[in-house]
Amino acid sequence: MGLDKMEAQPLTIRASADQAIVWANDRLYLLDQRILPNEEAYIELQSARDTAGAIRDMVVRGAPAIGITAAFGVVLAARSCFRASPDAWRDLMADELQALAEARPTAVNLCWALERMQRLFPAIGDADPEPRLLQEAQLIHREDIAANRTMGEFGAGLIVAATSVITHCNAGALATGGYGTALGVIRSAHAAGRIGMVYADETRPWLQGSRLTAWELARDRIPVTLLTDGAAASRMAQGGIGWIIVGSDRIAANGDVANKIGTYNLAVAARYHGVKVMVAAPTSTIDMTVRCGKDIPIESRDPAEVLQCGGRRVGAAGVDAWNPVFDVTPAALVDAIVTEKGVVLSPDSQKMAELMSR
What we know:
Layout: E1 21-24, E2 27-31, E3 42-45, H1 48-56, H2 63-84, H3 89-101, H4 108-118, H5 121-124, H6 130-158, E4 163-167, H7 182-191, E5 195-201, H8 208-219, E6 224-227, H9 232-237, E7 241-246, E8 250-252, E9 257-260, H10 263-273, E10 276-280, E11 286-287, H11 304-307, E12 308-309, E13 312-313, E14 326-329, E15 336-339, E16 342-345, H12 349-356
Parallel strand pairs: 4-5, 4-7, 5-6, 7-10, 8-11, 10-15
Antiparallel strand pairs: 1-2, 2-3, 8-9, 9-14, 12-13, 15-16
């Protein structure tokens, strides 16, 4: 069933960023991030193919959230494959896992979660795989929330005096299992009285900053002001900005960071204005098999996302658009990478290796 034909199913919970991924009634529910903040509705998923479609179509986005969702997608795949053939369910899983893996190529958490789930297959034996795989998916979910809270405290500790910050895209609870990475740092720092104002880039073309980050922060009663993407440098020039705080979809072994397109612009402008750059991401986002940022696959999406707004074309007829989803910020422009294992200041290959060996 295509996503456009799936009806949102009501749950007995209030929609919230901290409950954007919900396993209930033996199925997966995702808070549909495409329609926030105007509508708050959950989509019900009952198959791995629908889960892959939800990832691809941006119902869910953000590397940690994609990984968690994919793990639950494996549970759904195992259920249907075991019902189809209790003896050959592992073989039947191959196509389902491939569909999940191809949904979003840049987010390393996607493959990380799939590989973690697949490592359980041999030990399951002849039993129904669903209970054991569900247990693991729920563990991945809980671990992410705990990691985000730890990162929040680590990151907040770097903000030594009250200041304002700029963030880009959405690296909040919506992009994770809960609490958030970059917004987790912001939540913890605000609670400690160290953040006066959060400036959120609108983040074209999907407007994750204006639709999602602003919604999350407003719900948490954290002061937030929207910026057009092109206004951030000018705002830094006015003073009072201490940090750029962002998340990441993949971090290379040398500390280069792939994040939402426009992050590189922020980092370049921040260096000129003496503003520090903090990247908050779980270690599952660090890909030690990728030497540097140039080796990270960068997803490109339909040019129509840039040429249209609200389903209406705004680009001139006959004009094409370049629509990469991510860019790479060199490690030399990053002041701190914050993970659940600790903080890496001025990251390089040696420091990243030391972090991952802990």
